[in-house]
Amino acid sequence: MTTIVNRLHLLLTLISMSKAMECQQFRANLEADNKISTQAPSDNLHAVSFATCSRSCINGCECFSFNSRSNMCRLYIHRSSCDPSNMTVSEAGWRSYTIFEIQPTETLPLDCKSLYMNGKRKSGVYTIYPWERSDPNYRPVQVYCDMETEGGGWTAIQRRVNGEESFYRNWTEYKLGFGSPNVDYWIGNNAIHQLTNGRNLSLRVTITPMNGGSVSFKMYHQFYVFGEDLNYTLQLAVPGNGNLDDVLLYSSGGRLTGMQFSTFDVDNDKSSYNCAATYYGGWWFDNCDYAYLNGPWLSNDWHNPWHSQYTTAVDVNGTSMLIK
Ligand SMILES: *[C@@H]1O[C@H](CO)[C@@H](O)[C@H](O)[C@H]1NC(C)=O
Ligand SMILES: *[C@@H]1O[C@H](CO)[C@@H](O)[C@H](O)[C@H]1NC(C)=O
Ligand SMILES: *[C@@H]1O[C@H](CO)[C@@H](O)[C@H](O)[C@H]1NC(C)=O
Ligand SMILES: *[C@@H]1O[C@H](CO)[C@@H](O)[C@H](O)[C@H]1NC(C)=O
Ligand SMILES: *[C@@H]1O[C@H](CO)[C@@H](O)[C@H](O)[C@H]1NC(C)=O
After folding, report:
1. How far apart are CA 213 and CA 110, in angstroms?
2. What pTM was estimated for this model as a whole?
3. Each residue's pLDDT tens digit, 108-162
4. Cis-peptide, bond into residue 96, ω within 30° of zero
5. For the chain, which terminal residue's Cβ has fewer other Cβ atoms within 10 angstroms, N or C?
6. Rounded CA separation 304/40 (Å)
7. Does the C-beta of 83 come closer than 6 Å to ligand 1?
8. HSE of 133, CA atoms in CB hemisphere, 13 A
9. Do 13 and 96 meet the contact criterion of CB atoms below 8 Å apart?
């Protein structure tokens, strides 16, 4: 019995293909060790390593055999070629592998909510995959996940803990993101767009006061950020609960919803001057703001972090923007 179990044991090998961050998975059938197919390979080549051989198994190749002694690599179009019943010729050093597809959308977490649903319950830095593999923007994104606050599963799109990261950044930097998710970072406007696109998410803004007091927050619903073609216009529809005033939707001093994003080098605000350059950060400035989480840390130039509860930078010891 033990030997049967051993013989049926499947060795799973995950090979990263660096070029397109593509992952292919192969199943090694140890039953066919030191055996070679009776069928003719579609290709028979020399490979410096197993990894090189596996990377050659593309364009319809369904299975391959690699000989670790002679470094020969044989590719087959039909997976039946690597079936043990068709691997009857003995030759030392061969091991055969059958390819099977990973379904990226099924296995790779889209956001912190997916990770939470998969049992991750500890707040910290995780990797998420907001884009499909076929998307030209595809890239894994490192984020901070809050797995404890209000049901957990929150993806931080902005986070400031100690002020070590400058938020005085240009358009491209705000577009692609900057900083370190375990401390201070901006996830990137194109990631925010992608994460909110076609979904119906809530935004939870938090501010930690500079006196050891408890964290203030404000919830918003139907949070959405348009794409770069619309300069990452901010859209929020419904304010939720929280002990921070609502200054994104209904403030008498201006509504940030509907505003385009601005940086010092791309000025889309409603002011006669350049708010992003004047207040040293990127944001959905109006004329200019009653809420602004990306100002210069502990500086007098950080204008109105959150009117009227936090009017100067020295009141603020941390911020976050969480979505779910
Ligand atoms: C062996 O290969 C042939 C194709 O040449 C296929 O018809 C047959 O099903 C294979 N045997 C097994 C057990 O897969
Ligand atoms: C934006 O900043 C980055 C990093 O400093 C720099 O490499 C890039 O050239 C800047 N882009 C523009 C358009 O100024
Ligand atoms: C978003 O969800 C809320 C409930 O949370 C619902 O009332 C609203 O109609 C939804 N909006 C859209 C555009 O699906
Ligand atoms: C600011 O936050 C840090 C932790 O990030 C904490 O160690 C420090 O005591 C806080 N300072 C004040 C004045 O609240
Ligand atoms: C986006 O911003 C650029 C630069 O400020 C501007 O030229 C363009 O008209 C804006 N696009 C829209 C749709 O408003």
Report:
1. 34
2. 0.71
3. 899 999 999 989 999 999 999 999 878 888 899 999 999 999 999 999 999 999 9
4. no
5. N
6. 73
7. yes
8. 16
9. no
